Amino acid sequence: MDVLHDYLVRARASGAVFARSVARPPWGLTLPGSIQLSLHTVLRGHAWVWLDDPARAERLLPGDLAIIVGGQDHHIADEPDPGRCLTHEEFWTAGTGGDADDPQAAVFLCGAYRLAGDVGRSLIQALPPMLVIRPAAHDQVHDVVALISRELTHQAPGGQTVLDRLLDVLLVLVLRSSYQTSPTAPRWYHAAEDPRLNRALQAMHQHPEHAWTVPQLAQVSAMSRPAFARTFERALGQPPMRYLTDWRLTLAREYLLAGDLTIEQIAHRTGYSSPNAFAATFRRHIGLPPGRWRQQTTP
Predict the structure, then answer these.
(1) Closest to 71 measured CA to CA, from 122, 33, 38, 36
(2) Selecting from 1.10.10.60, 3.30.200.100, 3.40.50.720, 3.10.20.90, what CATH number does the domain 190-297 have?
(3) In what order do the strands lie in the sheet with 130-133?
(4) Where are the domains of the chain?
(5) Alpha-carbon distance 297 to 4, whole Å?
(6) pLDDT band for position 228 (50/70/90)?
(7) Which of 25, 39, 79, 230 could connect to 111 by a Cys-Cys bridge, CB 3.0–4.6 Å?
(8) In the CATH hierarchy, which top-level class contains the domain 3-181?
(9) Which comes out higher in pLDDT, residue 91 or 77?
(10) Is the pLDDT of residue 76 over 90?
């Protein structure tokens, strides 16, 4: 188990919606910012993708992958020209005038998917608004995109499950690529590269119900207490006990939204001695009692 794995298990992608399009120039479409995470890749020809400024558009060639985080509308077209962009409903209703054998037509995939709960949102928020990956011919990202394309072209029973699982793999590869270089990467991602801190992070993630103390975590990390506390806070920007509280409350919110556990069970799983102790901590950090938070948050 590693920390990224723990986040991803709790934020599994689901409900993948893909469209494979063939479009002859001129063509373009606008996709709404309400889509939590969008994916675009070109199989043949080219496409331009941009957010609000066409002057900053990125050109996608076959195999390139663009990931767009929700929040604002974005555009994809054969040229960076907003005037030719239809809404996605208009685009797929009207047809695009091309076929798969037309050498002038672009063939591209558009995908949209969601991740569950606070954990999923935290992973997405650590990505830049638009990320373009240009993999080599036999890169893992390239191979996964090719599998998605084949699954869409040759539909078979269980196709949605296959797409969801391929999205899981693609998401891991995208997050790795982004987090390695992005200044917005979660601090725990780079902290986990230190084997000593990684052991402490894994201990907290694997056993959040344990009554951890700083000396115990220092022992797990094979460091002295002062050195561990100092190194942890420098790497993660917060003391170990605050990180542990934040992680426990993240898990608590996931359990509350799932609705399968009682408050007493959630308190036990997140390391609190009683429902009252859990509720007091939850209210102090979140601003509402657990039950009321669940009522206000659940659709």
Answers:
(1) 33
(2) 1.10.10.60
(3) 13-23, 106-115, 37-44, 65-69, 130-133
(4) 3-181, 190-297
(5) 26
(6) very high
(7) 39
(8) mainly beta
(9) 77
(10) yes
